[in-house]
TrEMBL record:
Protein's UniProt keywords contain Signal: no
Organismal lineage: Eukaryota, Fungi, Dikarya, Ascomycota, Pezizomycotina
Keywords (A to Z) from UniProt: Magnesium, Manganese, Metal-binding, NAD, Oxidoreductase
Cofactor(s) it depends on: Mg(2+); Mn(2+)
Keyword Magnesium: yes
Pfam families in alphabetical order: Iso_dh (PF00180)
Family of this protein: Belongs to the isocitrate and isopropylmalate dehydrogenases family.
Designated name of the protein: D-malate dehydrogenase (decarboxylating)
Length: 364
């Protein structure tokens, strides 16, 4: 027990679900950084409990989440997630076995994905300077293209018919739209770009447009524009400085946020928050990348996205100052050149983790 435990003001119970591949490596790193943040602050204390729900346990037991798993998670203040997926389990089984049920049963209907160019890193875009790319993508996280509606008929016949039905509800669209406007309103530029494909998809996407025009009336101080998703990829690449907050459907924002991460330097830096804004259920924090089987076990995964996700968790728990300090420490480390290979450096996961912990010792 740390010597200053008697000074502790806030105790947070965090469930960790490392999952597969580099998910395990970066979760371990994030827990160390969070422990260091807590001990350096002297006012925060984390109690971690680890849940070994992974493709390995699935192959042994036949399930990812045990029957009482979700109920157990409800006793925590937040969930920290690594990544799920391994080549010996089909990806739709792992995604629908672990990550999507977590998001759905914990009512995490918002997914927040910030991106910016961290100090000491650079964009693959030739003319893009730090500050030119500073976005928050708000992704609808509960319905749309990932609703799971559909089925397969004539599967064995050689002429299979499959349907994949998107579900868009007025309630679902309105709540994500309001969250996006409120996010934009809190940021200095107060600017929101709404993305759909309402020219070709004339029902659900048109409902998005309709709700957007209604909700917009309540936020007259937010400057808005509207893009089709294909044109959006062009604008993100050629004019990144023209955007700030972006709202899009589950599928579109999934794709755009990977692009955003790549444009800001690497998928290895990008964080995400799965939020239940009502706070009735714990929210869940995870880097946007997957389990990266190609580099798993090599000790070279970039832990920055995991640390940034941890900072977002700390912020959601109400510790703004500690979250800012952690972000500052991460950027001091990237600025100093301690970076993994994906960012053009040669440091290991361990070296980046130690460097961030060292900065944290000096931060308070
Ligand atoms: P991925 O994000 O795991 O990897 C894509 C590429 O980026 C790979 O070359 C990988 O080495 C690199 N990369 C990813 N994270 C990195 C990091 N932190 N540091 C350095 N390089 C990094 O996506 P991929 O390959 O499409 O999927 C692999 C598995 O992960 C699949 O089973 C997939 O279903 C699963 N997945 C899970 C997600 C989640 O749990 N949230 C999200 C995306 C994929
Ligand atoms: Mg994705």
């Amino acid at each position: 027990m740390p010597s200053h435990i008697h000074d502790v003001q806030e105790i947070y119970k965090i469930a960790t679900i490392p999952g597969d591949g580099i998910g395990v490596e970066i979760t371990e790193a994030a827990v160390r950084v969070l422990q260091k943040l807590a001990s350096s602050s002297g006012t925060i204390h984390f109690e971690f409990e680890n849940f070994d729900w992974s493709s390995k346990t699935y192959l042994k037991k036949g399930y990812y989440i045990p029957p009482d798993g979700i109920d157990k998670l409800k006793n925590f203040d937040a969930v920290y997630f690594g990544a799920v997926g391994w080549p010996n389990v089909p990806d739709h089984i792992s995604l629908w076995g672990l990550m999507l049920p977590l998001r759905n049963s914990l009512q995490q209907y918002v997914n927040v994905r910030p991106t910016r160019i961290l100090r000491g890193t650079s964009s693959p875009l030739r003319n893009c300077k730090p500050g030119d790319l500073d976005w928050v993508i708000i992704r609808e996280n509960s319905e749309g293209e990932y609703s799971g509606h559909g089925g397969t008929t004539h599967a064995a016949s050689g002429s299979a018919v499959a349907t994949e039905v998107s579900i868009f509800t007025q309630v679902g669209i309105e709540r994500i739209m309001r969250f996006a406007f409120e996010t934009a309103q809190k940021r200095p530029r107060k600017k929101l770009t709404m993305v759909t494909k309402s020219n070709a998809q004339r029902h659900g996407m048109v409902l998005w447009d309709t709700v957007y025009h209604e909700v917009k009336k309540d936020y007259p101080d937010v400057e808005t524009d509207k893009m089709l998703v294909d044109a959006m990829t062009v604008r993100m690449t050629l004019h990144p400085e023209t955007m700030d907050t972006i709202v899009a459907t589950n599928l579109h924002a999934d794709i755009l946020s990977d692009l955003a991460a790549a444009l800001s330097g690497s998928i290895g830096i990008a964080p995400s928050s799965n939020l239940d804004p009502t706070r009735r259920n714990p929210s869940m924090f995870e880097p946007i990348h997957g389990s990266a089987p190609d580099i798993a076990g090599k000790g070279i995964a970039n832990p920055v996205g995991a640390f940034w996700s941890a900072a977002e968790m700390v912020r959601w728990l109400g510790q703004e100052d500690a979250a800012d300090k952690l972000m500052e420490c991460i950027e001091k480390v990237t600025e100093s050149g301690t970076k993994t290979k994906d960012l053009g450096g040669s440091s290991t996961t361990e070296q980046v983790t130690v460097a961030v912990c060292n900065e944290l010792e000096k931060a308070f």
